[in-house]
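Subject: for your reference before the review

Hello V.,

The reviewers asked for a structural picture of the protein, and I figured it would be easier to keep everything in one thread rather than splitting it across files. Below is the amino acid sequence we used in the manuscript, unchanged from the supplementary table.
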Amino acid sequence: MTSISPAIDLEPATPSVSPEDTAHSPLRSWLVVAALSFAAIVSYIDRQIINLLVDPIKIDLGLTDVQISLLQGFSFALLYAVMAIPLAWIADRYNRKWVILGGLICWSAATFGSGLAMGFVFLFFARMFVGIGEATLSPAGFSMISDYFPKEKLPAAIGVFTGTGFIGSGLALVIGGYLYAQLEAIGPITLPFGTFKPWQITFFTVSLLSVPVFFCLLLIREPARKDGNVVLSDDDAPPALEILSFIRSNALVFFPLFFGFSCFAAAQFGIGAWAPSYFIRVHEWTQLEVGQFFGPVVMFGGVTGVVAGGFAAEKMLASGIKDATLRLPIIAILCALPFAIAFPLVSSPWVALALLALVLFFGTVPFGAGVATFPLITPNRMRAQVIAVYLLIANLLGYSAGPLLVAWLTDYVFGSPAAIDQSLALAPPATMIIGLVLVCFALKPYRKMIQKTEMESF
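And here is what came back from the structure prediction:
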C-alpha cells in the first residue's frame, strides 16, 4: 500500500489506464472518503449556522420569516445549483481536488463576509457566494469516490460521504448554540474593522473551521478515471449536449428521480431550516438549548439514516435486488411520514424531539441509498455533470421551496410566527408524498434500463 500524499495536477484528466492502475486499497479509499467527509461537515456548518441565528438576525435587520427563508434557501441554492453544472464540467475534465480546494476558499470567505452584513441585500449576496463555493464539493466528490470504489461498494461510500453532512448540520447547532450563548453574554465586540453583534461574530468564527480542512484535502491523491471514460482534450470531449441527450433518452428514469428525490430534500431542508425556530417559539428554548438537545438529534438521526441506507442498499444489490436504490427510499419515506406529521403538534418538546429523530432517520435514507442510483447508471465521463443536474434541481427545489413553503404558510396563511408548528405539520409531509409518487413512477423504467445495460455488457 502506498502512502497518501499531495498530488498537484493542473493538467486535464489522464487517459484511460489498466485495471491494475485504478485499483485502490480499501484503507486508501476510505481515507479519501474521510477527508471529503470532513470538508462536507464544515461546509454544512457554514451553510446551516444561519438557521440558529434566525431571531437575532430578524431583530437586527428587520426581516420577515419569508425574507429569512430566502436567506436560508434561495440565496444559497441559486448559484449553488446553477454553478454546479459548469463546475462539474470542469471536474469531469481536470483535477477534481483542486476544484474542491478553490470552492473551499470561496465558501469560507463568503461565510466570513456574512458577518459583515448590515442589511438583507448584502447578506443575500454573501449567501450566494457560499453556494458558489460549496457547489464544487458534491459533484467532484461523488466523481472521485466513484473512481476509488467498485460499483457494488459505491452506495456505502456515498452514504458515508453524504451522511456526514448531517454531522455538520448538527454541529452547526451544537457549536453555534454554545458560541452564540457565550457571545451574547459578552455583548457587542469591537474588532479592528468595526463593532459587531454576537450573531456576526458567530459567522466570523465558524468560517475559520475551513483552515484545517484545506490542509487535510491537500493530502488527497487525484484517482485515475475508470472504464476508459476519460475526456482527453477539447477535440475528444463529448458534445456539450451529450449529457442532456443521455438524460433525455432515459427521461422516464431521470426526471421522476430528479424531482422525486428533490421533494424528499425539500421536506428535510424545510424541517432543518425551521425546527430550531419551532423549539424557540413554541417550546421557549434558547439557542443554547436548541444546540444542546436538537443538534445531537440531527447528527445521530441524519447520519445513521444516510449511512444505514447506503449499506443496506449495498447488501440488497449484492443479494440480487436490482432496484434496491429506489425501493429502499420508498419504504423509508413511508415510515417517516406519520412522524413528520406528528412531531410539530405534540405538547412535549421531548416527545417532539424523539419523533423528529425518527423523521430524520427515515427521511434521510434516500440521500445515501437513492442518490447512489445516478453514478450507478451514468458513464464515468459524465457522472459529475449528471449529479450536478440533479443538484441543480434538488437545491433550487429543495433548498428554496422547502424553507419558503413553511415560511409562506406561517406569514400568509396562519399569520403568526407562533403558528410555525402548523406550518411544519403541513409542508414537509406534503412534499414527501409528492416525492413518493414520482419515485414510484421511475421504478418500472429503471428496471428496464438496468436490464438493457446488463444485456449490452454481454
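For the response letter, the relevant points are probably these. Strands lie at 189-191, 194-196. Residues 420-457 form the longest helix (38 residues).

Happy to draft the paragraph if you're swamped.

O.
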